[in-house]
Amino acid sequence: MKLTRARVINYKSIDDSSWVRVDDVTALVGKNESGKTAFLQAIRKINSISGEEDIFSIRDYPRKGYIKYKKIHDQNPCETAQAEFELNAEEISEIEANFGDGILASNKIIVTKNYKNERNWKINLVESVSQPSNVTTFTQPSTPAPTSFQSAVQTVENVSNVSERISEQFLEKWLPKFVYFDNYSLMRGKISINELRQRTENGGPFDDADRTFLALLTLSGVSLEDLEKDLGYEDIKVELESASITITDEIFEYWQQNRQLKVEFDVSLADPRDAAPLNQGKILHVRIENARHRVTVSFDERSKGFVWFFSFLSYFSHLEETESGDLIILLDEPGTALHAMAQKDFLRFMDERLSPRCQVIYTTHSPFMIDLEKLQRIRLVQDMDGVGTVISDDPVHNDRETVFPLQMALGYQMAQTLFLSPHCLMVNSPSDLIYLQVLGDMVAAESGIRIDPRWVIIPVGSTDNLSTFVTLLGDNYVSVAVMMDLTPTNKEKMEAINRKNELEGENPVKWVQVTRIRDADIEDLFEPKIYLQLVNLSYANQLDQTLTMRSITESNPRIVERLKVYFAKTGIAGGVFDRYVPAAYLLENFEDFKAHISEDSVEKAKALVERINSLITESDSIDILNSSQSGGSRTSRSASKNRAGSKKSGIKATGTVDLGSIQSSAAVGSLPLQTQF
Q: Residues in domain Endonuclease GajA/Old nuclease/RecF-like AAA (predicted)?
């Protein structure tokens, strides 16, 4: 039987979740307190692996209708949890073998659980069985099966009897067990052996943490009685650690964080000073050894990520050994304690390890627990005013907070894949991008030289964002260049980035400075009077008088900086000069304004284009070819970068490019272009 849909009615925050489609792996995405956990808790009670300990209580009925419902509860209990299952061909054949061919009108059946904890089945039989038969006997499984539906009808009293017998004989034993696991299921670092044994003898009660520990004992073949005995201590420890090593080794197939961890066990007498029940009898200590730091800590004092993974895998491995029937795993916020990359690994764990064995439904509000290649598994959970919790797969009709994790996941993917060229040129702002485009087009029209299409230009805001952007680019680029002002502070940041790149076998980030003087912006490619004319046109509605070179008397050689000081002093445009305003005006009115741009500015832009293009070397092209042939793996890419870094022409030991080794056709007087590593 495979779960295809589920529905929850009148449970805690849920009035009616509506039918929720379920896949092999299904993700319930929503903000805190939206009802994700309530949905899992309700459907698990249909057939909880915890048995009678996990049942509905009338107190969970929504408060707004509680008094009214309490009056009718005994006569008409609400069917709170509903699940639709699909029977497979083998199951259908077995039913037909006992009740006749074609008795089922559909391969879908529905099971419900009400507030009186009664489980009921809804089976769609063919219409021909709607009238009672005069025959009052029923074919037992040992009796030869009827060969047709008509013969089956003659062996039953009525439809209700048929449905009951189908459910009792087959559906009940095929119904999957629901296994719920959350942060309260984590194994404890200290366990009172005597107290747990007594509860075991009395049939409980057990909480989820107890069940996790008992699962580990089952895997190791050790009993609580063995732990209480003095004899065989070393044997017991060997068995426990053998089980933990097996589980840890399996975790490391998916755990890419600190791999120098090991779970250890020890038994000691209780400390009377500890709180009950840890103050008497024998105590089992579960500890984690960190070989990197050569220290052990109590299991429940360790980073929650590894503890959660170990606890869950212990429990799941136990279920694999002890449960022969189907399982449905319900994971409540499984990625909460995991690093973003560990969450990605856990997604792979669910697909490769869990889903082949059982269906999985998990809740999350983390963008890293969303697999964008499998968006069909996403269900959005929203708590709506006057309606309660509603679950759907339609993002259009959900609020921003609900779809935010999905938006973040999409944004991360776009950041990794939006810029597809192998060479990245980082600039300050969108205005730099506009000037490169406009002046680059003028250079191409006059000389045929244009910016190499292999460059992708990315505005990053400022040099403060450089290290973040370089890190985010990761392995997506063969070479990275930066066109910003080279101040001493910025130079230090670049050197720090390149020291890190050198250690990791990455190409250095190259610095492109377009200036005849030390401090300059791309706007300084224009003659000052021409750029000021562009500012006057773009800010015409906000200027009381035309700006002149005499107006901006600040001594800073960068015209943009002088304008910033003037705007702040006079309060024009709220005291803020926006570089993007004149750039946008130029882009929109280029045909009218291009006649004002001098040949000298075009020549300077030509020199800039040539210098930028010269940063792509032949070895960079080899890097791209090697990377594509090797499938783009990090190992091969890093190796090719090491080769490229050692072969780049003009690189001196000090890390500075020898400009004399780079040929340029720029006219005399064009701005020199410095490239520093």
A: 1-370
pLDDT of res. 460: 81
Token pair for 481: 């260049």
Q: How many structural domains is the chain composed of? A: 4
**Same domain, residue pair 482 and 538:** no
Q: Helix or strand or coil: residue 503? A: helix
What is the model's pLDDT at position 518?
Answer: 59
Token couple for 36:
């994700």
| Tens of pLDDT, residues 80-119 | 999 999 999 999 999 999 888 889 999 999 999 999 999 9
**362-379 residue pLDDT tens:** 999 888 888 878 888 999
Residue-wise pLDDT for 412-442, tens only, equals 666 665 555 678 888 888 899 899 989 999 9
Looking at 540-595, list the stretches that DSSP marks H as alpha helix, in order from N- to C-terminal side: 559-570, 580-588, 590-593
CA count, 13 A, side-chain hemisphere, 388: 18
Q: Do residues 255 and 343 lie in contact, with contact meaning Cβ atoms separated by under 8 Å?
A: no
Amino acid at 99: F
One domain, residues 494 and 512: yes
Q: Confirm whether 272 is domain-assigned.
A: yes
pLDDT digits (tens, 9 = 90+) for 196-251: 888 888 877 888 788 888 887 777 777 777 777 754 567 777 777 777 777 777 77
CA angle 432, 435, 441 (to 5 degrees): 140
In a domain, 553, yes or no: yes
Which of 226, 204, 334, 335 lies closest to 284, judged by CA? 226
Q: Are 360 and 10 in contact (CB under 8 A)?
A: no
Do 616 and 489 fall within a single domain?
yes
The last residue of a domain, from among 596, 623, 641: 596
Answer yes or no: is pLDDT of 74 > 80.
Answer: yes
In a domain, residue 388? The reply is no
pLDDT of residue 473: 66
Q: Where a domain ends, among 550, 568, 596?
A: 596
Give the closest residue to 154 by CA, choosing from 181, 175, 133, 173.
Answer: 133
Residues 55 and 198 reside in one and the same domain: no
Residue 618 and residue 511 share a domain: yes
| Cα–Cα distance for residue pair 379/369, rounded to 1 Å | 13
Residue 441's SS3 state is helix
| Same-domain status, 192 and 220 | yes
Judgement on whether residues 584 and 614 belong to the same structural domain of the protein? no
Angle, CA 581 vertex, CA 578 and CA 587 arms, to 5°: 145
pTM over 0.85: no
| Position 1 in a domain | no
d(CA 57, CA 68): 16
Q: Are residues 194 and 260 both part of a single domain?
A: yes
- Domain of residue 122: give its range: 48-175
Q: Which two tokens stand for residue 639?
A: 């190796």
- Using DSSP's 3-state secondary structure scheme, residue 517 falls into coil
